[in-house]
Amino acid sequence: MRLETIGIYCVIVIATITACSGQKKIHYDDLYDPIADVGQYKIPAIDRTPKLCWEITPGIDRANLKEAFLAASITGLTARALQQNKTDVGVWIEQGMDSRVAYQKERASLESRGCRFFAKATPRQLATETFEAVDGIDVTLKTLFDGYILTDLRNNPESGTVAVTASHIYNGIIVDREDR
Fold first, then answer.
1. Taking the model in full, what pTM does it have?
2. Do residues 117 and 92 touch, judged by C-beta distance below 8 A?
3. Over 50: is that where the pLDDT of 170 sits?
4. At what angle do helices 159-170 and 65-83 cross, to 10 degrees?
5. In whole angstroms, how far apart are CA 102 and each of 42, 99, 109?
6. Residue 144: pLDDT above 80?
7. Can you list the pairs that 125-132 forms with residues at least 24 positions away whose Cβ atoms lie under 8 Å?
8. Cβ atoms within 10 Å of 105's Cβ, excluding its own
9. What is the pLDDT of residues 94-111, one digit of tens each?
10. CB count, 10 Å around CB of 82?
11. Tens digit of pLDDT for each residue in 9-61?
12. Three state DSSP letters for the chain
């Protein structure tokens, strides 16, 4: 009887192994969409070159995140306005990396396409002040924005993340509560 039981178990094990080996193996990569670049990794290109370009010269560093958010939102929203033919002005952020080759090449590319860097300003000046036209071109940027997205980086650091998302949706520059 014991030999019969062992024999039955052996038959079951052999049948299981045989049945399992006949199945096609499923690879992990087949369970999900293949990794492919279908545009999700591309930064939107600007195919218009600004005629004039502001240079933002703040003390942008990690200690002054609120000014960095303001500068970045002004730059991004101005670039979108340029692309939409609402302005002929661009913004260049100087932040101590202009000595790097990539920055030098990009700046030289802008200049070779006819962009003139005409003045320096702080993000706060560009967000709040009205400027005289330069060569007949309106260089005041504050009229390009519909308002502002308020952050409170001191008490709610996560508000910066929300503001970055909301900025382009509401066409608003990012302003910290302390600077409102």
1. 0.73
2. yes
3. yes
4. 20
5. 18, 9, 10
6. yes
7. 126/54, 126/56, 126/74, 126/91, 127/70, 127/74, 127/173, 127/175
8. 10
9. 877 667 888 888 889 999
10. 22
11. 666 767 666 665 556 677 766 666 667 777 666 666 678 999 999 999 755 55
12. CHHHHHHHHHHHHHHHHHHHHCCCCCCHHHHCCCCCCCCCCCCCCCCCCCCEEEEECCCCCHHHHHHHHHHHHHHHHHHHHHHCCCCCEEEEECCCCCCCHHHHHHHHHHHHCCCEEEEEECHHHHHHCCCCCECCECCCCHHHCCEEEEEECCCECCHHHHHHHHHHHHCEEEEEHHHC
What pLDDT score was predicted for residue 135? Answer: 95
